[in-house]
Design goal:
Layout lengths: L2 H17 L15 H17 L12 E3 L11 E3 H17 L4 H17 L10 E3 L4 E3 L8 E2 H18 L4 H15 L16 E2 L18 H9 L7 H8 L6 E6 L2 E5 L33 H18 L16 E4 L2 E4 L13 H5 L6 H14 L1 H4 E2 L2 E2 L13 E3 H16 L1 H7 L2 H9 L13
Antiparallel strand pairs: 1-13, 2-3, 3-4, 5-6, 7-8, 9-10, 11-12
Helix pairs in contact: 2-3, 2-13, 3-4, 3-5, 3-13, 4-6, 5-6, 5-7, 7-8, 7-15
Length: 454
């Protein structure tokens, strides 16, 4: 290892241990990193978003951080539930990397747990957003002012990972694990079926079920259905998965692009697959390798979605500036005209590259992802690299390089890089007894399941 890099890493560790706070490394980072050193830097900087950039009182993750200080709707203090779920996992990654101590992790996670225990909930589900650290719901939209079972499932995924990590630790760690376990058990997944055979995304104390957003067809919500089936206290029946999520088998398709097949479709059935966060959010903990059910081989499904996304950018039908094998990745993020669900397709590719798309896909396409990471770090450093690593999105076509970050894009980079390096989160989540029982209940196969398939 380069002695300068070794000194940098040791210095960071010393600062953390002494001060109890992760400090930003020197801005004079060398550009000739090995792959491991490059991943160290990208993963560490993204972790800092959740460690140094989170709300100072609650420890929860801010929805966004704009380094230019310009925020939409004056929401610079808004706390995100799903992003905080990812944030829980980044703390564990930091312990595993030696960036913080276990004690520092317990202190931060205890603070976050205390917030979740007192924050607004609706039939066990947390809302999409809260105001600052007081835990009062902030409406995501007019009628989305109550429980959000999808964002709640991202929190639950993080809670379960943390519980598994600390459940056999010292007394303080065991107590924290028990509190997290209790939070998980109080999520009333069954309420969000409305008494039928599908999950519904939202419930409002004022508008009830007016959002009427049924969760059906393939997207980022597989984790929601798995956890709903896995709940030891408020489980849903397999019918909810098969009739709701899988649309009575209608979820299956037979599409092929660039020689890569993909067998699952969203209700809108995008021709080239959807934005790449579909291949990330559910699989932060849920290991797709060897994961199969009656509808899909998820190892192949996730990898092929990423490869189609990659090939679209390489072929570049719109002839956008600088698209190519070292500059690719379409997923939901900022765009010059606002937030957009960027994806391959004539109408969905707006010329905006989102680094998390390629970075978080490293578990599926390591060579392609590393080439993009190295290109951005080396050739776009002054435009894309800041205190918390790569900025959220950019467009060479529009000469647009905003210094903005989003929690839901930063978190998957930390977690998926860790899964690529150590498989840590896959091992923790897949070894949860409830998760294994839920997988069996829904008819999944996985190398983690030692019991008979049902």
């Amino acid at each position: 290892m380069n002695t300068r890099i070794l000194y940098l890493i040791l210095s960071i560790t010393a600062i953390i241990t002494a001060c109890g706070e992760a400090k930003t490394p020197s801005p004079q980072e060398p550009v000739e990193f090995t792959d491991e050193q490059l991943l160290d830097s990208v993963q560490y900087r993204a972790f800092l978003y959740f460690w140094n950039g989170s709300d100072t009182v609650s420890g929860m993750s801010k929805e966004r951080i704009h380094m230019d200080g310009v925020y939409p709707q004056k929401d610079q203090d808004v706390i995100t539930s799903g992003g905080s779920g990812f944030g829980l996992m980044t703390v564990i990654a930091a312990v595993n990397r030696g960036w913080i101590t276990r004690q520092q992790a317990v202190e931060r996670l205890s603070k976050m747990t205390a917030f979740l225990e007192k924050a607004d909930r609706f039939h066990g589900a947390w809302p999409h957003w809260w105001y600052d650290y007081n835990g009062k719901v902030k409406a995501f939209s007019t009628k989305d002012d109550g429980g959000d079972i999808v964002e709640t499932s991202f929190i639950a995924q993080g809670l379960l990972v943390c519980r598994e990590y600390f459940k056999n630790g010292n007394e303080q760690e065991k107590a924290l694990a028990a509190r997290m376990d209790q939070l998980w058990k109080t999520i009333d997944f069954n309420f969000y079926t409305r008494g039928g055979n599908s999950l519904y995304w939202h419930w409002s104390p004022k508008y009830q079920w007016d959002m009427n957003f049924q969760i059906r067809g393939y997207n980022e919500c597989l984790i929601t259905y798995l956890l709903a089936a896995s709940s030891p206290t408020h489980p849903v029946s397999p019918k909810v998965y098969h009739q709701g999520w899988a649309m009575n088998g209608g979820i299956k398709s037979a599409n092929t692009k660039y020689g890569y097949s993909y067998g699952l479709k969203h209700q809108d059935n995008p021709e080239y697959g959807g934005p790449l966060f579909w291949a990330h959010y559910s699989y932060l903990g849920l290991d797709p390798r060897g994961l199969k059910d009656t509808y899909a081989d998820y190892e192949q499904e996730t990898k092929n979605q990423v490869l189609i996304n990659f090939k679209w950018c390489v072929e570049n039908p719109h002839a956008y500036k600088n698209y190519g094998p070292n500059n690719w990745g379409l997923t939901a993020s900022y765009s010059p005209s606002g937030y957009a669900a960027h994806a391959p397709g004539v109408d969905r590719d707006l010329g905006v590259i989102t680094p998390t798309a390629a970075v978080s896909s490293i578990v599926y396409t390591p060579q392609e992802s590393l080439r993009a990471i190295r290109n951005w770090f080396t050739n776009y450093h002054s435009k894309l690299w800041g205190e918390y690593g790569f900025y959220d999105a950019f467009s060479d076509q529009e000469n647009w390089y905003p210094k903005h970050y989003l929690a839901i894009d930063q978190g998957p980079m930390v977690v998926m890089i860790e899964n690529y390096r150590s498989e840590l989160f896959w091992k923790l989540f897949m070894n949860c007894s409830e998760v294994q029982e839920g997988l069996i209940k829904l008819g999944f196969e996985s190398p983690y399941l030692s019991g008979p398939k049902k």
